[in-house]
Specification:
SH3 type barrels; 103 residues; RNA-binding; six-stranded antiparallel sheet; single chain
């Protein structure tokens, strides 16, 4: 999975198409990620000792990684990512659009 926690992504499919957000968590086993303020779901919370106030809570639901693209700030657009091995043997992610090293 090319997308990691902390990356900024743009949604390319679904009801939230066009929205940008930061990846809060990534689950490589299921190929799903949770993006900030994307795919919001309503959860009905019952009052408990932890949560004194019950009611409806809006929470991010997981979205499939194929529905997002890495957002390149320099290109100001979504871009695919490729893997590249540097001369020192380090494996890094590279933007396909600009060719710049991501990390």
């Amino acid at each position: 999975m090319h997308i990691k926690k902390g990356d900024t992504v743009i949604v390319i499919a679904g009801k939230d198409k066009g929205k940008k957000g930061k990846v809060l968590s990534a689950n490589p086993k299921t190929d799903r990620i949770i993006v900030e303020n994307v795919n919001m779901a309503t959860k009905h919370q019952k009052p408990s000792m932890k949560v004194q106030q019950g009611g409806r809570i809006h929470k991010e639901a997981p979205i499939h990684v194929s529905n997002v693209l890495y957002y390149d700030a320099k290109a100001k657009a979504g871009t695919r990512l490729a893997s590249k091995v540097l001369e020192n043997g380090q494996k890094v992610r590279v933007s396909v659009k600009t060719g710049e090293v991501i990390d």
